[in-house]
Amino acid sequence: MSAETASVLELRAVSCASGFGLPVSAEFAPGRVHLLLGAAGGESSALLRVLGLLDLPETGEVLVEGRPTRELDEEARAGLRAQRFGFVFAAPFLLGSFSVIENVAMPLFKISQVGPEEARRRTERLLAFTEMAEAAEAAIEDLTLRAQYHVAVARGLANEPAILIVENLDGTLAGEELAGFAALLRRVPAEFGATVIATASPAFAVEKEDRVLEIARGVIVRDSALQPEPEA
Length: 232
Description:
The chain is of the alpha/beta class. The protein has six helices and ten strands.
């Protein structure tokens, strides 16, 4: 496999009694949106937590940029999560005592320990990308829910992760708000080079460019990379 097509994340015969009992194997190509479709809180959610190194699988291996992770201790796993992953959880989980720009900049000082000039450059770019530049000094409580999710995306990308994990993409937003948020996530690979892996319900409106894995009964029942939808 060439460097251009190498997987940024890979599951090798992974199983987890809380979500999928049969071994699951899958590769996630860089610079793409991958959608795990399934019931909220079910197998897709369990799989996402394993992919994000939040839970350790009972069997099998998770490789991050080719690096095995099963034998890492919790401190090493936490360090790898912080450096190579960004997260947008089912709720935005922003800090109400901080402004928008402070919420985005905080991981830069806490994890990457960048200088003030680099922090300013990154936060300004991220706020512009997420359409939140004009709200940089706003209080979190004054933002709409969609705007809070946009700030959560900016915060998740602050440390320039290889992988952005998005939990329950369509769990709260709907209609035009959901469409706008999904469009933002689909621009992440081209703008920042990060691979997006998100869970969503089976009713979520996928697009042709999305890689879709449908998960049910504890297994991957369809992978669009192997079984693309027929042309209309």
